[in-house]
Amino acid sequence: xxxxxxxxxxxxxxxxxxxxxxxxxxxxxxxxxxxxxxxxxxxxxxxxxxxxxxxxxxxxxxxxxxxxxxxxxxxxxxxxxxxxxxxxxxxxxxxxxxxxxxxxxxxxxxxxxxxxxxxxxxxxxxxxxxxxxxxxxxxxxxxxxxxxxxxxxxxxxxxxxxxxxxxxxxxxxxxxxxxxxxxxxxxxxxxxxxxxxxxxxxxxxxxxxxxxxxxxxxxxxxxxxxxxxxxxxxxxxxxxxxxxxxxxxxxxxxxxxxxxxxxxxxxxxxxxxxxxxxxxxxxxxxxxxxxxxxxxxxxxxxxxxxxxxxxxxxxxxxxxxxxxxxxxxxxxxxxxxxxxxxxxxxxxxxxxxxxxxxxxxxxxxxxxxxxxxxxxxxxxxxxxxxxxxxxxxxxxxxxxxxxxxxxxxxxxxxxxxxxxxxxxxxxxxxxxxxxxxxxxxxxxxxxxxxxxxxxxxxxxxxxxxxxxxxxxxxxxxxxxxxxxxxxxxxxxxxxxxxxxxxxxxxxxxxxxxxxxxxxxxxxxxxxxxxxxxxxxxxxxxxxxxxxxxxxxxxxxxxxxxxxxxxxxxxxxxxxxxxxxxxxxxxxxxxxxxxxxxxxxxxxxxxxxxxxxxxxxxxxxxxxxxxxxxxxxxxxxxxxxxxxxxxxxxxxxxxxxxxxxxxxxxxxxxxxxxxxxxxxxxxxxxxxxxxxxxxxxxxxxxxxxxxxxx
Length: 709
Ligand code: ADP
Ligand code: MG
Known about the structure:
It is a single chain. The chain is an alpha/beta fold. It folds into four domains: 17-41 and 143-208, no CATH class; 47-132, CATH 2.40.50.140; 245-281 and 295-465, Rossmann fold; 475-632, 3-Layer(aba) Sandwich (Rossmann fold). The chain contains 25 helices and 22 strands. A hairpin with a 2-residue loop joins strand 6 (117-119) and strand 7. Helix 7 (212-237) crosses helix 24, helix 8 (251-258) packs across helix 12 (336-355) and helix 9 (265-279) runs parallel beside helix 11. The two termini are 45 Å apart. The model is unreliable at 1-10, 284-293, 649-660 and 702-709 (pLDDT under 50). It binds adenosine-5'-diphosphate and magnesium ion. Adenosine-5'-diphosphate (ADP) binds at residues 261-264, 267, 305, 307-313, 445, 469, 574, 603.
């Protein structure tokens, strides 16, 4: 038997290996152990007659050893025969110790757990669990928990640790009566029940988590999550941001007049929503709380709109409002290439207008270094650069804004949770702006499913562009096995003959940049050979920035017919004449990534096609993804299916944080509970702030930070 673990944090003595393993699993405090729930259960509450033990199911039987010998059958093995009143059973051990033989000596009574099978020599169990008993040894009264664990942490040790923690931890009800939905047990009852379900408890309800004890835990977790969101929201509401209003005849009006198209109704609507946030004056009550400034709560808005719906113009118009009001705007994108796409467009639209006002646009990315960077940094600091475009380099510590009024993040789903936190921190601590925070606008083409909007993004206001600019034709998606590659290449020739352009996308495997490059290079060579007389270009992450820009310029200018690219083109590329996209190894891409890629075609009036080439055999989720792509072009539907296939953690970019955000509740399944938690949180926080704090502390501790992101 392993030694009983001591309270994990009580002793300064050196920690044992299992203790360290336990901490590695995040099981440091008693409450952590109490919330470490079983994966499954073993039933030691019953003993079946050997004759009744079904084949291939875990059972417990009991008998007396009638025979015990070592056999040499291929391999040395211990073979033991036990018998009860109903039948006999062989126990077979390929690995065994002298202690096995001692416990399993002829005449001993043993209780045995395992799966019986009918073998050549009769019924047998291979490597069963066993223990010596006498005729009066009581049966377990509860199911035996089997916990998720690691190699260094024996199950028996963990069981004892959890049981000890459960006995110690104060599981008093911190929630006032009426908070928890009726019919659910107390937290203590729920945990006792889940760790040690009484004999006869429904395994099915425990396993599918519909059991009331599970419901209680899920509700607790969701409530903690809602409370911490609310707290973050309250905190944010105390902040003040500048009031930004467009000036009659100013940059905003000039930009609108200069656009080569009419805004869609949806663009106009979201533009007004954003302008209202930016231009809001402080309410009387809020002004009292921050008497030294005349601002209102900073905007915290998410602009969602499908690929191609025209978010960039909306961002540019918001930037123009900020600049009109005499403030700077920062626009950030996750990759340099995307940032550059924005830059090009915005320069085209805004630069002449800004130049007339004696202002400029600054460009900050990781690859811009030395003098060029220093010059840009100076312009930002002096305020001459009214607009700053770039990657996260924009928020580096060495960059200081004269008057940052608005920060815009594009494709925000591609920023990890940690990056979003860093941005918040940076924006909040900008020196020279002690009193005022910038407004924040985030943009995404991956719409947030309702359940997520209610949880992690509850603190965001959401604007949606639900309409594409006129004249677009939906993209037709076809899925082919890689054997059809030849046919696809022939199709490229047809398309190019019609004066159209083609993307060919190769996957990027993060761990092996080298193989990707090889893959893209080979495909490039194959296409160049198969399409004589056509300009076939190659674009990948290893190219120097200048070369990348040159390749893109050739493709955008129509000189290049076919562009082979790794996923660097994933977002932001805009070539309306491109009508065919081939995605190689489509099975390796995530669903939202495929959707984003596909959005690169169908930008003009011509009918466009997206071909997904896959290499079989496909995994079930791979199949689901490709099917979803073929069945719909609706970004909302794609996002819904993505959530179904992958779960919310990955959706949020939480993978980088290495931390699943919800352990017990499942957003797809537990929407009704989520709604209850959402309703319960505000009155709880208002009337019982102490209880709310205690509840969040019990549940979220270190996670609370991430939930604010
Ligand atoms: P996304 O929402 O994917 O970022 P973009 O902002 O890149 O989309 O816009 C896609 C294309 O549509 C661009 O070429 C853009 O200039 C064009 N566009 C945007 N709004 C309109 C509009 N109202 N009418 C016509 N074209 C538009
Ligand atoms: Mg965009």
